[in-house]
Here is the input.
Amino acid sequence: MSLRLYNTFSKHEEEFTPLKAGEVSMYTCGPTVYGRPHIGNYSSFLMADLLRRWLEVGHGYSVTHVKNITDVGHLIADGDTGEDKIEKQAKTEKTDPLAIAKRYTEQYLEDEKVLNMKEPSERPRATFYIKDMLAIIRTLLAKGNAYETDDGFYFSVGTFSAYGKLSGNTLDKLDAGSRIAVDEAKKHPADFALWKKCTGKNGHHLLRWSFQSGERTKTEGEDPNSGFPGWHIECSAMSSRLLGQEIDIHTGGEDNIFPHHECEIAQSESANGHQFVRFWLHKRRIDLAGEKMSKSLGNVLSVPTVLEKGYSPLDLRYYLLSVHYRTNLKFSWKGMDDARDSRRSICEWMERGGEPASEMTKKLPSVSSADIQKFDADFSSAMDTDLNVSGALAAVHNCMHKTNASIMADLKASSALQEFIEKIRDTFGCFDPEAEVAVPAAVQELVSARGAARSNKDFKESDRLRDEIHKMGYEVRDEKSEQKIKKL
Ligand SMILES: [Zn+2]
Here is the structure.
């Protein structure tokens, strides 16, 4: 069956086929590393992870997935004025912006790892692609799509008649509205910065590059246009450098549609003279207590906050993925509990490998390979319908209920079930027995100490450590020479 995806651009579900047979190019707008990303940010990255997995598992595509890290140029309120988010945080923490970017990049990568996200093909950092950004800016200047002002270089939206085609914020609507503050030096209020000069009022002194050479500069002087890039140009540059000028899929959160993605389209298509992205996919936001979860509103939950309450990171992964990406997820602890219970019952079923639950009596009906293949087909057809996870999970639950109350007809049925289980595991990434062992370092230390005690045949100490581990919410079992850890 063919894969259908909802394209924000056309506002329709469309059949997806990649530009190059068998290969998919995909770009995901990654985080701006000025604080630990919250679970709303991760829900967007998880949607991209699920899509990438389904392209691979369900269709056998080879996916080149690029996911950037923004470490400069993202200004407060996504605008053209005001402070750089990372520099502002550096002032608050009394350190330099590179230290801030490093610290929060590390936290971000830690969170992605425990959430079992697949490593992207590339994780470009904006500060390493300044020359690529400058090359696009020069092309835009040469083509008359950009102009210079006292404080920077701007894209002229009036030169791109398709502006607004993604978000619906066309120029006539923007003219009438008041979404954008009027800056006297701009030709149109919606014109956006490609490059900001480090003149006094921009106050961006620590991270700056020569406009001429693209090299880092430390002092003002030799190049009066020294400065830093605008946030939008970063993604256009990294995307075209690593994936080519036209790509199959670009993902992000719904907040990215405007202005970020609208501006990416305007500058990339003006510079290249052809289409930039074929499919735009956007994840709806997460609400917490009836409000949008956002750092600026201060109502955010981080991954560690959720884990401190005793959930496995995979419970969180399951919860965030179990609601369709185009539906607002209303986060609640009750929802978290339900997700944990549901995920764990699926894991237990998978571990039994189709054996009915122990309390079942004899004389059960048998289940055939054709029955299993039907559930498998239902799962795939739901995933192919714009990643309909509710439908896919319903197929999993139906198969679970059926096999829990049946015995396998023959070996063929057992192997069809194993195949289906592998497909579910690889698609969702929540039911992986190895990933289960994402245990905190403190528990891991006790487990190592227990291993040492056992090698020394100090069974009293080994039992004491087992109790300690138990108190921390983990169960350790001895299987052959290995210790297996399980969250209680
Ligand atoms: Zn981006």
Observations:
- The CA atoms of residues 29 and 252 lie 5 Å apart.
- The longest strand covers residues 247-253.
- The chain has a mean pLDDT of 90.
- The chain has three domains: 4-283, 291-435, 439-487.
